[in-house]
Specification:
- By secondary structure, the protein is α+β, with helices and mostly antiparallel strands.
- The protein has a single domain, classed as SH3 type barrels (Roll), CATH 2.30.30.
- The chain has 1 helix and 7 strands; from the N terminus they run βαββββββ.
- It has one helix spanning 23-39; strands at 3-5, 44-48, 55-59, 61-64, 68-71, 76-78, 82-86.
- The strands form 2 sheets. The protein has a 4-stranded mixed beta sheet, with helices on one face. A 3-stranded antiparallel beta sheet has the order 4-5-6.
- β5 and β6 form a beta hairpin.
- The longest helix is centred in the middle third of the chain and has 17 residues, at 23-39.
Length: 87
């Protein structure tokens, strides 16, 4: 189980790429997460890789670019670091 953290802790972490780049695998789910966050104010659970091991955050996703997710509060999370997502 990854350690659950608050989204405010993300900037203090050293985020690294996941062992497997799942960017394309997660594309549709990430697009749904953006819609969920913007239209319904719903939250998404995101597990991502750091130098301290996997971390999980429950947060609102505001936008998606080719390389990053923008979370509520302006935090950017590299897509290549994502291990898993669920709603």
């Amino acid at each position: 189980m990854p350690a659950v953290i608050a989204k405010e802790e993300i900037p203090s972490l050293k985020i690294v790429p996941a062992f497997v780049d799942n960017t394309e695998r997660w594309r549709k789910e990430l697009e749904y997460a953006v819609r969920l966050g913007n239209e319904y104010k719903g939250k998404t659970h995101i597990i991502f890789e750091t130098t301290q091991g996997p971390r999980e955050v429950e947060t609102t996703v505001w936008s998606l670019s080719d390389n990053y997710l923008q979370l509520k509060g302006g935090t950017l999370l590299p897509l290549e670091s994502i291990i898993d997502i669920h709603f």
